[in-house]
């Protein structure tokens, strides 16, 4: 029998593969990884993992492209100089000790990440809350799911996600609210599509007509920030329709005085339709679908959580499910789908400043329990600073020593310009990271090289509470160390040797299990009975399991009286557009990128789907403002501004803009989205409101445009208005545009044999640089003419001898341009797919998949394929 931690070689092609877990989103897909070289691996989906059953999205499929050592931080540094581990750790421990002694425990803070494994998270939380004695440890998960945490606690008494992926398989109605699931959680979306093909209905509630909305039975493009009105209206409709579960409400749910009167007031169909700015007929159809389908799963994500009213929006959804008894039953649940691979694991061990440990808060009895278990000095007395407040405290000088682990707040925090000012002023900043050159690392006094995915060993928890093992594939490179090791070594140097005497992740896991079970007696649903046995071998062989079983099937909730709570929530009035900031800015993720691209940016096949940061604009706004598709525009808010490439689309509501979150100073001169949102947060959860920032947009005129190619990374970035870096096979591509003298770009070209062509009439210049006959760089610019496609020239970087038609930008004869990448999994461009549709008379998405493979792996391009089929059918007619 094969052990859970390995799988047989694929058809006898190599050694046994290692079972591990994907590095990306909260779906928690299992992987089968076959090592093929010193730093190379073949990735497949693990067919036996319950989360994905062998399927992978484009990011997971191409994980093997990201495991190299390019750009890695491999040695500790103090300032700009390399240091030994002993010197670096001693300095960190000493500066934290001195700061605490002089200014108290609340003068220091940790800012951690959903990229950490549970064991890393546990040690960091224990050190800060249990031994330093402050709760100033928060996580970047604060930015993505803390409103769901707060909503769960208000309604259920504990942060419990009362759903599993299996509920999707039995639902008759699936509601997606604030989630572009096809792009952000593609494997969950595949499950949704499979259920819809079996007859379930799909409703998508999102201001944007996303790829997910394209395939919905009903799309409600509601006004941003009106989700409470929408859900309160559904609650009122269901009450009037007589579909409340009266017995469940009587026996298992508590409603405060005046709750039902508030629901009835002002939540008629027409009032809600007007507030949400959706057609009353569409709203009625949604309410009728919800009322008619007891087996309803409502999945929600950042569009709900990342709001100044995020917690109320979560509770509006939970109220609806509780009132209709759609919880604790197969195919009936509210389902928060998390963004990061181990956001849930961080919630379990106390990674948020607002929780203590093991789903316990700071009540005196919990503090005594945890302090007794840890045998710690005086433990943190109250919640610490949440992320936005934490960095504000750094800027105000109240936090004097800060340790940032596995995250990039100089990019990802709202009002990131102010965050950078705070980091620059902080007396002591430590950064533990994988990459040597990040926007945040530039402010570090000490940088510590951490293990990356593929080198880490521990556990993660996915959106459905499934705990899986993440296993090391490669030995630690250079002097990199696991995060848990780094933290425990600092703790030991601060004087707590016996409390942090861990030799391996299994030691930490067993302690975490004991704490989860310690004097629990069923008071908390989070418990791990029987999971600490088997010794090190049992930990190594751990198979995926979901804690908590199926919560709430018995109608009991972890509240003092065992009843769930209906929480009164009211729609807050929406502020009218501001005179100088008349538009509303929304932010979010792209399909093939992740966070700040330190991983996905290494993968050529992931980089081309959306090679540049785009601002999506409705055609009416573009026409009114003189903004051209493919041109450049400046988006500004009261906090800052940044430049984007323009994409005009009817998927945007008029008066609203959408921009991606991924680009940094290391990858683009524009697209710096973190500079734009307000540093305002939900009053309960502390989660920033990224989805509705007052903004303005204006076109930018450029004199010239073009691109540059490099086999080796240029020693300096292009000095021009617009320069966006894209990883390509055998090198890098820079998309360029400017209003100055393009001759300044010559400074970035390497030495070598130059060939050049100039067309003065069109302001066109083409330069190729060769070394021993091989292309090592190219620069193609124009003022009024055209520049060739990129693909053929990119391929030339890998050729041992450059073709004679380099400056033409194409092979001798006719060379087809495949167009923008649509299917990343199979590297298929728009023109290639259109040619197949026309030449082979393909009539649907299934036929496209059978013919050329597109849409048959992760499925996230299926909406785009369906749109191409529809457009071709319309054109033919």
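Sequence proposed for the structure above (877 residues):
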């Amino acid at each position: 029998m094969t052990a859970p931690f390995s799988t047989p070689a694929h058809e006898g092609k190599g050694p046994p593969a290692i079972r591990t877990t994907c590095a990306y989103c909260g779906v928690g897909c299992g992987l089968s990884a076959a090592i093929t070289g010193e730093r190379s691996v073949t990735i497949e989906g693990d067919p036996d993992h319950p989360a994905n059953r062998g399927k992978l999205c484009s990011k997971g499929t191409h994980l093997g492209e990201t495991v190299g050592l390019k750009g890695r931080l491999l040695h500790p540094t103090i300032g700009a100089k390399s240091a030994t581990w002993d010197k670096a750790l001693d300095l960190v421990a000493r500066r934290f000790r001195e700061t605490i002694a002089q200014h108290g425990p609340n003068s220091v803070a940790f800012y951690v990440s959903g990229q950490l494994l549970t064991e890393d998270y546990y040690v960091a939380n224990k050190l800060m809350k249990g031994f330093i004695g402050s709760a100033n440890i928060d996580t970047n998960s604060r930015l993505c799911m803390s409103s769901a945490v707060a909503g769960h606690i208000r309604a259920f008494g504990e942060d419990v996600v009362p759903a599993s992926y299996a509920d999707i398989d039995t639902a008759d109605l699936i509601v997606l609210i604030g989630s572009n699931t096809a792009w952000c959680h593609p494997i969950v979306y595949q499950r949704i599509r499979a259920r819809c093909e079996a007859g379930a209905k799909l409703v998508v509630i999102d201001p944007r007509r996303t790829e997910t909305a394209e395939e919905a039975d009903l799309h409600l493009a509601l006004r941003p920030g009106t989700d409470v009105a929408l859900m309160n209206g559904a609650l009122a409709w269901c009450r009037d329709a007589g579909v409340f579960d009266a017995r469940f409400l009587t026996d298992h749910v508590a409603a405060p005085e005046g709750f039902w009167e508030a629901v009835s007031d002002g939540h008629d169909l027409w009032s809600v339709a007007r507030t949400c700015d959706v057609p009353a007929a569409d709203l009625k159809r949604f309410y009728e679908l919800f009322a008619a389908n007891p087996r309803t799963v409502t999945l929600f994500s950042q569009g709900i959580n990342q709001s100044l009213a995020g917690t109320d929006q979560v509770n509006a959804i939970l109220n609806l499910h509780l009132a209709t008894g759609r919880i604790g039953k197969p195919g009936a649940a509210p389902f928060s789908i998390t963004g990061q691979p181990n956001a849930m694991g961080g919630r379990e061990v106390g990674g948020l400043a607002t929780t203590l440990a093991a789903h316990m808060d700071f009540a005196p009895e919990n503090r005594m329990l945890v302090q007794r278990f840890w045998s710690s000095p005086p433990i943190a007395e109250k919640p610490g600073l949440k992320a936005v407040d934490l960095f504000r405290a750094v800027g105000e000088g109240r936090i004097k020593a800060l340790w940032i682990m596995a995250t990039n707040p100089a990019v990802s925090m709202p009002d990131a310009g102010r965050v950078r000012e705070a980091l620059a002023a902080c007396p002591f900043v430590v950064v533990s990271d994988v990459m040597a050159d990040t926007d945040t690392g530039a402010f570090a006094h000490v940088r510590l090289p951490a293990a990356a995915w593929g080198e880490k060993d521990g556990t993660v928890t996915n959106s459905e509470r499934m705990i899986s093992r993440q296993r090391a594939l490669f030995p630690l490179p250079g002097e990199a160390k696991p995060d848990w090791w780094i933290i425990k070594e600092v703790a030991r140097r601060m004087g707590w040797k016996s409390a942090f005497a861990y030799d391996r992740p299994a030691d930490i896991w067993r302690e975490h299990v004991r704490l989860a079970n310690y004097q629990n007696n069923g008071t908390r649903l989070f418990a791990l009975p029987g999971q600490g046995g088997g010794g090190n071998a049992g930990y190594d062989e751990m198979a995926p399991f979901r804690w908590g079983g199926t919560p709430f099937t018995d109608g009991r909730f972890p509240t003092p009286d065992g009843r769930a709570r209906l929480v009164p929530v009211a729609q807050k009035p929406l502020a009218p557009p501001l005179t100088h900031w008349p538009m509303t800015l929304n932010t979010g993720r792209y399909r093939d990128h992740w966070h700040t691209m330190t991983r996905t940016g290494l993968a050529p096949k992931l980089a081309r789907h959306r090679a540049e940061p785009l601002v999506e604009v409705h055609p009416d706004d573009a026409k009114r403002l003189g903004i051209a598709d493919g041109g450049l525009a400046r988006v500004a808010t009261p906090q800052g501004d940044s430049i984007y490439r323009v994409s005009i689309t009817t998927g945007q509501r008029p008066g609203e803009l959408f921009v991606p979150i991924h680009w940094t100073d290391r990858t683009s001169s524009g697209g710096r989205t973190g500079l734009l949102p307000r540093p305002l947060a939900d009053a309960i959860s502390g989660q920033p409101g990224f989805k509705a920032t007052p903004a303005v947009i204006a076109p930018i005129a450029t004199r010239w445009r073009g691109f540059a190619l490099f086999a080796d990374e240029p020693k300096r970035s292009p000095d021009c208005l617009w320069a966006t870096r894209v990883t390509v096979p055998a090198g890098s591509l820079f998309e360029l545009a400017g209003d100055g003298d393009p001759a300044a770009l010559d400074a970035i070209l390497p030495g070598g044999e130059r060939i050049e062509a100039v067309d003065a009439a069109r302001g066109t210049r083409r330069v190729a640089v060769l070394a021993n006959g091989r292309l090592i760089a190219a620069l193609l610019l124009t003022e009024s003419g055209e520049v060739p496609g990129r693909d053929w020239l990119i391929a030339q970087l890998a050729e041992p001898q450059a073709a004679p038609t380099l400056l033409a930008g194409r092979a001798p004869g006719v060379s087809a341009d495949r167009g923008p990448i649509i299917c990343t999994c199979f590297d298929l461009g728009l023109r290639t797919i259109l040619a197949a549709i026309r030449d082979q008379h393909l009539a649907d998405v299934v036929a496209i998949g059978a013919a050329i493979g597109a849409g048959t792996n992760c499925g996230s391009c299926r909406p785009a394929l369906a749109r191409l089929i529809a457009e071709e059918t319309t054109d033919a007619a």
